[in-house]
Design goal:
This protein has 103 residues and is mainly beta. The protein is built from 2 helices and 5 strands, in the order H-E-E-H-E-E-E. The protein has a 5-stranded mixed sheet with strand order 2-1-5-4-3. Strand 1 and strand 2 form a beta hairpin. The longest helix is centred in the middle third of the chain and has 6 residues. It is globular and about 35 Å long.
Length: 103
């Protein structure tokens, strides 16, 4: 089994810890989250455009510097990406931000 499919054994961001099947689906596309409060999780990026992937994500978490805030993750733009389903890239932790005021 190649390394990308081994990574699919991880839990996907947003799935319940107690879920009997918290893992990702083989036909979806994921970014592996590296560092920070969600290190080791996978983020489902199926259907994201190249620009959306290049921008990264601000993910809700109770585990960061600001409980209820966001952990910021973005790809290394110089890192190659796989062209198919599975784990196609990594998003690296870059810091935390407080919860948006409008929530």
């Amino acid at each position: 089994m190649n390394r990308r499919w081994e990574l699919l054994r991880r839990r996907a961001y947003g799935t319940d810890h107690a879920s009997p099947n918290p893992g990702p689906l083989r036909w979806r596309t994921y970014a592996a989250l590296v560092g920070g409060p969600m290190d080791g999780l996978l983020l489902d990026i199926t259907g994201w455009t190249k620009d959306e992937i290049d921008t990264g994500a601000a993910l809700s978490t109770a585990l960061g510097q600001f409980p209820g805030g966001r952990a910021l993750y973005a790809p290394d733009l110089d890192e190659p990406r796989a062209p198919d389903s599975g784990v196609t890239c990594c998003f690296y932790y870059s810091g935390d931000m407080p919860r948006p005021v409008d929530e």
